[in-house]
Amino acid sequence: MEENIKFLRSGILAPIKKWGTHWSLWPVHLVTACCGAELAHAFASGYDGERIGALNYGIARQTNLIIVEGAITRKMARVLRITWEQMPDPKFVIIMGTCGLNGGVFWNSYHLVKPFEVVPVNYFIPGCPSTPEALLRGIRQLQNEIRTGEPRSSIEFEKVDLGKGKMMPVTPKSPKKISLAPSIVVNVPRKADEETKKLADEISKLGLATTVTGKNRIALRVEKDELVDAAKKLQNFGFDHVKNVNVIDVPNEDKFIVEYHLGSYSKRELMPVVLNLFTELPRSEPKLKSLAKIFPSADYMEREMHDFFGVVFEGNEWMGRKFLLAPDTPEYPLKKDFKLEEEKYLR
Ligand code: SF4
After folding, report:
1. Inside any domain, residue 330
2. pTM for this entry
3. Are 142 and 12 within one domain?
């Protein structure tokens, strides 16, 4: 058997085999993210990837090339590995996009896996997203490698001599010109209008110390034991729903900040207003009373925050269970001190 394989690889049939592989790449594409749109573009009528001998395929058993399009999550990492293991030899992997290179925009995300730790990668194609031209160029490089047996990058960087025979590649400067468009202005001063101030004063008369943070934006800080009382008062005032529940982890001050953004559908003058009712909890005992009975729309988001941060909303029936995350997800992935356990797929 070994003899036969050796003969096929290096005997008189080897050039035919190489020629066949070169023109018969059947990429199975793992569309995990937005780079997938660029792949579709590369194989659609404009670029017509098929004319260079590669045709997308949906079934792993017949494929010999995986194109990973962007980010690979923990869940997809298993799929990637299983797909790769099912493929017959010779098999190749191309990674598209900066997400697959080093995490890209999700570089510190709790659920991201680097594909090169899961399967051996032949070519990386940079870009966010990689262009269809770049993808086709990557496929051409792979074909060259199949033909010549030599992997080669499609870009040769100029090298500088560091002395003692050491050479270092110099990365090229961006050819792009800097836009003359004005930069984005942040920290725009927010002007509170008279109406918002008047409304905040009215709410303050309920015994709640409000702060106006902008036009139609009011903040209200309470102690955690006062949260339910404050919510009831605000409900009687006209706020009838929670738009959002948010948790901010502040580990250096050993606290969580829990925010409920309240709004109103029923009282006309409150409709444009967002009231941020917030409190602080010690990280060591992150418990507070749920507002789900007062504002049912808070229920779903309290469950989410419980999943992500471990904050216990007492009275919400879902506590202690996983709601959105897969059962084997490690606890509380959005806490700042969360560390992903290492997963090793390659021996
Ligand atoms: S590299 Fe950019 S375009 Fe590609 S998957 Fe990541 S975020 Fe999306």
Report:
1. no
2. 0.56
3. yes
Phi, psi of 185 (to 5 degrees): -90, 125
H-only helix segments in 49-131: 74-86, 98-102
Which amino acid residue places its CA nearest to atom 5 of ligand 1? 70
Q: How far apart are CA 56 and CA 172, in angstroms?
A: 33
Distance 108 CA to ligand 1 centre (A): 15
Answer whether 129 contacts ligand 1 (Cβ < 6 A). Answer: yes
Task: Report how far ligand 1's centroid is from the alpha carbon of 206 (Å).
Answer: 49
Pocket test residue of 39, 98, 131 for ligand 1, highest count of atoms within 8 A of CB: 98
> The CATH number of the domain where 254 resides is what?
3.30.460.80
The domain that holds 112 is classified in CATH as: 3.40.50.12280
* Ligand 1 pocket check for 27: Cβ under 6 Å: no
Tens-digit pLDDT string for the chain (347 aa): 677 777 777 777 788 888 888 888 888 877 778 888 998 899 888 888 888 888 887 777 778 899 998 888 888 888 889 888 888 888 899 999 888 887 888 877 778 888 888 899 998 988 888 899 999 999 999 999 888 887 777 666 677 777 777 777 666 555 555 555 555 555 655 666 888 899 999 999 998 888 898 889 999 999 999 999 999 999 999 999 999 999 999 988 899 999 999 999 999 989 999 999 999 999 999 999 999 999 999 999 999 999 999 999 999 988 888 877 877 777 888 888 887 666 666 65
Residue 67 pairs in a beta bridge with 29, 94
Query: Would you say the CB of residue 290 lies under 6 angstroms from ligand 1?
Result: no
Q: What angle do CA 268, 192, 297 make, to 5 degrees?
A: 45
* Judgement on whether residues 240 and 289 belong to the same structural domain of the protein: yes
Residue 339 domain-assigned? Answer: no
Number of domains in the chain: 2
Q: Say how far residue 61 (Cα) sits from the centre of its chain.
A: 29
Q: Find out whether the beta carbon of 98 lies less than 6 Å from any atom of ligand 1.
A: yes
* Domain assignment of residue 56, given as a range: 6-154
